């Protein structure tokens, strides 16, 4: 079955960096676009970044452009989110997501907390 497992979250000071990973299994990873979402307490889920098949198209939320970079390693079936210059408003649970057939799959999420 499809599984997505996120890792790499944690507590970081403003201006710091984190690299999130999402290990995928149960489907042909290189055939699917992947995305990262986040949800902060009391707020709606927000699309942060997405990457197409082959990685030739990447889109970002305006709030993270220039600071976050999404990438994929098809050999490892893993999608990454490099987050630089983190701000307190980036605090949220981050999920990776994909659509296989008619279903959306996401992982359990990884907590990112940006605080001094």
Largest sheet: 7 strands, mixed
| End-to-end Cα distance | 40 Å
Task: Give the ordered list of helices and strands.
Answer: EEEEEEEEEEE
Total helical segments: 0
Radius of gyration: 13 Å
Mean pLDDT: 96
The coarse silhouette is globular
Helix content: under 10%
Judged by helices, strands and strand pairing, the structural class is mainly beta
Strand content: over 45%
Low-confidence parts: none
Written account of the structure:
The protein is an all-beta fold. It has no helices and 11 strands. The protein has strands at residues 3-7, 10-12, 18-25, 34-39, 46-51, 58-60, 68-73, 78-83, 92-100, 103-106, 110-114. Strands 2, 4, 5, 6, 9, 10 and 11 form a 7-stranded mixed sheet that branches. Strands 1-3-8-7 form a 4-stranded antiparallel sheet, with no helix packed on it. The chain is globular, with a radius of gyration of 13 Å.
Please describe the topology of this protein:
Layout: E1 3-7, E2 10-12, E3 18-25, E4 34-39, E5 46-51, E6 58-60, E7 68-73, E8 78-83, E9 92-100, E10 103-106, E11 110-114
Parallel strand pairs: 2-11
Antiparallel strand pairs: 1-3, 3-8, 4-5, 4-9, 5-6, 7-8, 9-10, 9-11
